[in-house]
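>> received
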Amino acid sequence: MPSDSSSSRASRTESFVGQALTHLDASGRVQMVEVGDKPTVARLATAQGQVRMSKTTLQAILAGQGPKGNVVETARLAGIMAAKRTADLIPLCHPLPLSSVTVDLNPDPHLPGFLITATVKTNAQTGVEMEALTAVSVAALTLYDMAKALEKTMVIENIRLLRKYGGKSGPFEVEDGDNAEKC
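>> returned
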């Protein structure tokens, strides 16, 4: 029996069945969506993910004993830079003028590891969900790279969109049953 969160996901998916695919032209060729006629509006997206590691690795990072330097600040900077370069990485993303990118890496002794959250803002004709997801992904990869000499078994997991607003599809926020902290 599906959980409440899986049935809500299924109903969201079913709402798209039968609609034209925006990234395909009439011949089925991949295309970039035309956004030139859309209004410029304030948009925001927040994504989250986590890097699970041993308690010993977490303690070493928090003590500033990363073999390559400051693990957390390097991963934060990498996430910010990645958000700015998303259109270079994801083929059909539009390059956007980002007005703000924040990347937070919060230690969580219960994982153990880090919870990574990125929020991206813009005033544009299309949303910044991919920029937020890219920021989290690259911050997680950088954290792994900076600490892999301490532990190669770290796990990057549960990267997903938490919320977005702006645009014609309206606001989106994960439901309580989908709470990120319960990943």
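>> The helical segments are 4-14, 55-62, 71-84, 86-89, 129-147.
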